[in-house]
Amino acid sequence: MRLSNLHIKNFRNYEELMVDFHKNVVIFLGENAQGKTNLLESIYTLALTRSHRTRNEQELIQWEKEQAFVKGNVQKEYTNVPLELFLTKKGRKTKINHMEQKKLSSYIGQLNVILFAPEDLSLVKGSPQVRRKFLDMEIGQIDSVYLYESAQYQKILKQRNHYLKQLAEHKQTDELYLDILSEQLISHGSKVLFVRQQFVKRLEYWANQLHQKISQSKEQLKISYRSSVSGEYWTDEQTVKKAYEQEIEKVRNKERLRQTTLVGPHRDDLSFLVNEKDVQIFGSQGQQRTAALSVKLAEIDLIKEETGEYPLLLLDDVMSELDDSRQLHLLETIEGKVQTFLTTTTLKQIKDKMTVEPEIFYINQGQLEGEDV
């Protein structure tokens, strides 16, 4: 999978930009606050219809402009797919092959991307919310059913929490409605839980291989899905559902007192063990970063395994955060198979480690200088 061109208009600090990409490694070079990250953000947004930096889509549209758009042509093994994303004050509109898509799940997955930014190095030591978001974004790219079930779960969760508060304030007394909401929550939540568990199992397989390579076979990495629903491993969705029903029943009174849902995917987390020790608690910063790097790079092979195509890799000024050894392993992993877009303020240390000639664009105040601009 490759992105052969990009066309953006009224996006962040770019009034309009059209650029073609010819090589597998593309470097956006420039000082800070010139628009390098905005370019990576536009590619990410084209793929997933939303930014990784803000939940407010209006922030992506230039000041006093009515709309912005991002367009690109995705080259796959057997076909070319034009993608278009339009952002307005009222919402977004997506097109595949110039045909509007009514469902988000029909659009997402046409372009798969993996973003690796300095904050991703805190994937291991950061909050559970960071890891849940990671799971939702990555699984959603390769599983449209998961995307739907996760959205439905969040919708029911919001309704259920609101109703629990109303019950506590005696504004509502209908326990039957709470049972209906619980049943719907379990129905969607059990599907989310099962898919997450299966995903983490495959992620661990690829991540451990990379972790061993980076640590020169000194360390083994284990990743586990820690759920608020009891049971270490579920064989199918029905097993999850039964466990979920039992857990919800156990905390019924506590939920009434706390006025919130205490069990489900929104409460879950990941654990990382290096040589059987919890790296989140006992690991050094180096071990935590190696684990995070292994996980992010593992996604490349996992997505290839799922879709038959390698994803795009977006590296947002992450090279400066890695030591020479980790830089080398990162470049060895991606070169020759993954189209990579990389932002940096300097080529020092990077170019010497590359075995392929990169395509370099110089960015200055939202303007590009380079080939085919």
UniProtKB/TrEMBL annotation:
Positions of transmembrane segments: none
Gene3D superfamilies on file: P-loop containing nucleotide triphosphate hydrolases, RecF/RecN/SMC, N-terminal domain
Cellular location(s): Cytoplasm
Source taxon at top rank: Bacteria
Binding site for ATP: G30, E31, N32, A33, Q34, G35, K36, T37
Pfam families reported for this sequence: SMC_N (PF02463)
Main location: cytoplasm
Residue stretches making up the RecF/RecN/SMC N-terminal domain: 3-103
Keyword terms: ATP-binding, Cytoplasm, DNA damage, DNA repair, DNA replication, DNA-binding, Nucleotide-binding, SOS response
CDD domains: ABC_RecF
NCBIfam families, per the entry: recf (TIGR00611)
Name assigned to this protein: DNA replication and repair protein RecF
